[in-house]
Amino acid sequence: MPRIDLEHIAQTNSTGYPAPHDAAVAGRWVRRLGPASGMADFGVSHVVLKPGAASSHRHWHEDEDEFIVLLTGEAVLVENDARTVLYAGDMAAFPKGEPNGHHIVNESGGDCVLLAFGRPPSGDCHYPDIDLSWTGGGYRRKDGSGF
Amino acid sequence: MPRIDLEHIAQTNSTGYPAPHDAAVAGRWVRRLGPASGMADFGVSHVVLKPGAASSHRHWHEDEDEFIVLLTGEAVLVENDARTVLYAGDMAAFPKGEPNGHHIVNESGGDCVLLAFGRPPSGDCHYPDIDLSWTGGGYRRKDGSGF
Q1: Residue of B1, B94, B119 with shortest CB distance to A2
Q2: pLDDT in tens, B24-47
Q3: Domain count, chain A
Q4: Which one of A31, A58, A67, A117 makes the best mutation probe of the B interface by having the most chain B beta carbons within 10 Å?
Q5: Is there a domain that residue B139 lies in?
């Protein structure tokens, strides 16, 4: 049955972010639809953001295109130099290699739901706002030290 | 600006289907969001189906995962052995190699809008309902003759 049945797909708020950077995504509840439905060409995450939660820390990937569409609710797309309110049906694309740190934040009083698409990156990821980077396959501080 | 501005992305109802198979998708209006936004890892099509239009002929790919989400309106997902009404927010996944011919048909009286995700296939595509196949990089009849 190709139709996605969300009730039968596990939902988690786990994160690989080391403390204290994990707190910002504690209210991000993710279902990974690709493995659940037998797809491997690209990843699809169904994401519920509770009020106050962020989709990630503001970041940009050297080698991963990302695409999001908001399904319900309201959220704010935060970039280097802009804030844009997104409503249901709004979409955004983040091409690899563009040094425009971005994330989605739920500043509303209710849940919002989005789908996020991408392929697993092998290259580095940059976090302009916090002392964190993804480099060499792991999270490090910007001085290169580990957590 | 990562937010997708549909008004500035060209919309087309062109198709590669040879006649008479082109008629079923005459009311399918597509915007290709990947090239328009600088993404290359996967394709994203914004598709408006007018009443009576289909997303494609019923088909399955040997080597392309496909994923759709309905954004507005109502449509019917038709498979080998099932018909499922889809509403806004409903999603479906079609893993490569599963011989379950599928398409989305707008049987309602108003437009419906969906997003379709995939990567360009290099392998064959099969159309169980009509005398058409995609093989060797082109459309052919099932006896191998060209159009």
Answers
A1: B94
A2: 999 999 999 999 999 999 999 999
A3: 1
A4: A67
A5: no
